[in-house]
Each structure stands twice: as structure tokens, then as C-alpha cells.
Task: inverse folding
């Protein structure tokens, strides 16, 4: 006990060690979330399509993911001749790193420190509670089109280049509606801190009810930002093979894949914090469980949508983004202050 | 500046941790495998055909149109951020004028057919 206490006080003494403890804790949570997501994706999607999905490795195929990861990591590491070597090898690493920074502002570290009220001081171990945290999250979330373009160009194949341009066009088309819809939540709470936004939902409804159109618009834009069906135009087997990551293999493909699911996890977590009450919930179970469970449930909804809907063509996708989502989100953003005033005067919205 | 604050520093630590994990994942295969590079393996994948010419081909100009549209909208979204935080304290007219102007310009080009993907 004495050793643990002295170790903890040593950690508390240094900003770097505190940040490292938080980062490792969030990394474990996020990796666990991504693993569960991939399992849900493969199993539930298979069940909806009347298949079994993974069954052989481990009970109910639960160890299949680890088998796949080990297989990918021990594959030969090579760079195709046409590729730009430094850029080609750097893009997967930078992708994972930027996505992980976007994950920092989700209050996972706060909910984790609530589990240890005696030993971990939220004042010292929480780094997600600062003013423009939502903006920081989207700043790093929105770096993806640049990385996709770089990766597609560096791959040195025609499929990767065309796939990269197509991905980037899709990502930037849906960036605007996603910014404008999260701004309508900001207009409701007058804060850009995810913390305050979650706490404002404690005494009023979750914003999914007060801001229902914004919730739907955000969900659609998020589907496109995460490149999931019905907007998974980048993976077109018969025309573009696997899109911008066609040339990636082995451990680099593992990183690209991990980045995809980390992004899905981050996006679902942002959606949960903005619209579904974050770590708050009616039953007295730990806050981290609520946040994690809600995030996984939102992801399950995305998988369900993937299984249930056919994919769109690229012109339909761009039309939907520019001609419907952008004007609708602008109109809803301008309506939001009136909603906020009405809700404040009727006691439906209680700000801190 | 963001990086002078404690959150900014934590942001750098988070970035560094994920980058180190990624680098380790890229280095691990070199301990388990031997390089056996053949010309066929190093060739770009083009569905079994021999690649013709450079991979950095020309691309459609439509992507450029959408990129410019994105920049315009993004600037307007950036102007909307301070308004969204303090709409009860600031004048609404500039923001509404900006949005209306944007919708008129984009609507004009959309009706003209410039935003069609053909």
C-alpha cells in the first residue's frame, strides 16, 4: 500500500507522467472498443445476412480478431516499387495518431478517474475538460481527407490515386453539414466544451430530443465521414478494388484497419456526448460503463444500417451532401436560438 | 497558444503514444520475416494487368470544383462558430447575410448544373 501511494504521488508530481497515465488508460479503452466493434461488425452483419460469421477460433469466434492481427503482423513488410517510400510508410502511423488525439477530448479519462475516487484526483488526471475541446476533436477528426489523399498518391497505383480522390471528395462534402450540426448543439448550450455539453443534459432532456433534426443530420453526415455503407464508395471491389488503401498489406493494413475502427469509435463517442447524454444514465452503474455502452450501441446501429441499406452512387452521394444536408443544417442552425429561448422559458433546458 | 496549456501538452503526449505504438507495429514484421522481394510482388496491383505508364494520372476537374466549394463553406462555418457561442450578444444580420449569400451563390451554380457529377 505504501509503495502504491508513493508511486502515485511520484506520478502526480509530473505533468508528463500524468498525461501518459491518461493516454495509456484511454488507449486501452479505445482498443477494447475497437475490438468489440470489429467483432460486432463481423458477427451481427453475418447474422443479418443469414451467415454465421467467425465461428472456429475461440468460443463463438471471439479469438478470430487476435488470430487475424497476429497473422497480419508476421507478414513480410515491403514497399511496392511505384510507391513513395517515406510517405507510404508514414500515412498509417499518422492516421492512427491523429485519430487518437481526437479521442483525447472524449471524457473517457474523467469517467475512468471516477472509478478511483480515493486515489485518482480528477483535477490532475483529466485532460478532456477545456474550453474549445469540441473544436479540437473536429480539427483532428478532419485531417483524414489529407491523409487519404497522401496515402492514395503515395501508393503508386492508379486504383489508390483515384480511390484517394474519391474518398477525399466524399469526406470534404460531409464536413460542412457535420460542423453546422454540431454548431447547433453549441448554440443551444453556448459552450464548446464537451464536458459542459454533457452536464447541460443532466437536468434537461438529451439533446437528441431537443435537437432531433440536428441529430438525424449529424448521424447521416457521420455515416459518410466514417465511410460506412450506404456511403462506402471508396471500397468498390469491381471498379476501385479497395480504394486508397489497395497497396497496403501486412502490419500497415492492420494500422489502416485499426484507424478505421478507432474513427468509428471516436465518431460514435462524439455523437453520444453531443446528443445522447454522454456518461449520464438512469441506472446507478459506473459512468465509464454508460459511456462505453452507449458508444457501442451507436456503432451497432451503424452496422445495422450497413446491413440493411444498399449503397449509393457517387453523384447521389454528392447531391445529398451539397443540395440537401448543407441547406437543411444551415436552416436548423438559424432556428436553434429560438428553440433554445423557448426551451429555456419553459424549463425544458436548464443550463449550468 | 494551445501548446502552452496543460491540455496542449497532453495532446502531444497522446499523439506521441499512438505514433510510437504505430511505429512498433510497423517494425515488428521485420523480426519475423525475411525479405523475399520478387519483381511481381513489388509491382503495383492493377488486377493482374501489367501497369501502363505512370500511376500519377490526371484526374477529373470536378474534384477541384468541389474542393473550392468546400473551402468557401468552411470559411463561412468558421464565421458561424463565434455567432453560435454568443448569439444572444451579437448582431445576427452579418451571419444571416453570409448564409443567405452562400445559399444564393451555391443555388445559382447548382441550378446552372455546375455541381452535377456527370
Result:
Amino acid at each position: 500500500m505504501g509503495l502504491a501511494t508513493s508511486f502515485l504521488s511520484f506520478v502526480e508530481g509530473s505533468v508528463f507522467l500524468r498525461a501518459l497515465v491518461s493516454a495509456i488508460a484511454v488507449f486501452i479503452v479505445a482498443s477494447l472498443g475497437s475490438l468489440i466493434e470489429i467483432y460486432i461488425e463481423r458477427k451481427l452483419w453475418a447474422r443479418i445476412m443469414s451467415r454465421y460469421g467467425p465461428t472456429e477460433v475461440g468460443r463463438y469466434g471471439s479469438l478470430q480478431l487476435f488470430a487475424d492481427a497476429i497473422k497480419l503482423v508476421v507478414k513480410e513488410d515491403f514497399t511496392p516499387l511505384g510507391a513513395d517510400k517515406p510517405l507510404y510508410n508514414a500515412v498509417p502511423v499518422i492516421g492512427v495518431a491523429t485519430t487518437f488525439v481526437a479521442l483525447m477530448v472524449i471524457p473517457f479519462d474523467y469517467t475512468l478517474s471516477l472509478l478511483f475516487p480515493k486515489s485518482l484526483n480528477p483535477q490532475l488526471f483529466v485532460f478532456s475538460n477545456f474550453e474549445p475541446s469540441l473544436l479540437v476533436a473536429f480539427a483532428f477528426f478532419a485531417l483524414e481527407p489529407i491523409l487519404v489523399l497522401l496515402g492514395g498518391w503515395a501508393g503508386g497505383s492508379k486504383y489508390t490515386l483515384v480511390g484517394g480522390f474519391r474518398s477525399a471528395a466524399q469526406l470534404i462534402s460531409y464536413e460542412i453539414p457535420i460542423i453546422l450540426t454540431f454548431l447547433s448543439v453549441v448554440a443551444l448550450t453556448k459552450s464548446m466544451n464537451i464536458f459542459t455539453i454533457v452536464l447541460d443534459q443532466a437536468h434537461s432532456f438529451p439533446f437528441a430530443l431537443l435537437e432531433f433534426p440536428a441529430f438525424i443530420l449529424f448521424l447521416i453526415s457521420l455515416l459518410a465521414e466514417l465511410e460506412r455503407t450506404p456511403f462506402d464508395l471508396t471500397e468498390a471491389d469491381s471498379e476501385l478494388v479497395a480504394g486508397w488503401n489497395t497497396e497496403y498489406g501486412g502490419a500497415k493494413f492492420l494500422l489502416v484497419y485499426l484507424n478505421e475502427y478507432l474513427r468509428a469509435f471516436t465518431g460514435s463517442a462524439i455523437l453520444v456526448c453531443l446528443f445522447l447524454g454522454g456518461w449520464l444514465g438512469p441506472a446507478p452503474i459506473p459512468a465509464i460503463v454508460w459511456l462505453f455502452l452507449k458508444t457501442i450501441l451507436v456503432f451497432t446501429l451503424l452496422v445495422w444500417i450497413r446491413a440493411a441499406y444498399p449503397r449509393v452512387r457517387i453523384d447521389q452521394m454528392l447531391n445529398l451532401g451539397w443540395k440537401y444536408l448543407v441547406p437543411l443544417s444551415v436552416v436548423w442552425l438559424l432556428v436553434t436560438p429560438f428553440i433554445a429561448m423557448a426551451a429555456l422559458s419553459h424549463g425544458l433546458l436548464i443550463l449550468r | 497558444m494551445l501548446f502552452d496549456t496543460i491540455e496542449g501538452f497532453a495532446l502531444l503526449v497522446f499523439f506521441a503514444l499512438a505514433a510510437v505504438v504505430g511505429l512498433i507495429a510497423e517494425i515488428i514484421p521485420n523480426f519475423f520475416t525475411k525479405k523475399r522481394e520478387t519483381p511481381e510482388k513489388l509491382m503495383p496491383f492493377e488486377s493482374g494487368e501489367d501497369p501502363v505508364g505512370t500511376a500519377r494520372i490526371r484526374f477529373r476537374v470536378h474534384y477541384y470544383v468541389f474542393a473550392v466549394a468546400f473551402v468557401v463553406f468552411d470559411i463561412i462555418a468558421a464565421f458561424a462558430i463565434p455567432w453560435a457561442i454568443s448569439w444572444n450578444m451579437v448582431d445576427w444580420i452579418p451571419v444571416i447575410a453570409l448564409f443567405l449569400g452562400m445559399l444564393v451563390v451555391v443555388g445559382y451554380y447548382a441550378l446552372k448544373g455546375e455541381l452535377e457529377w456527370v
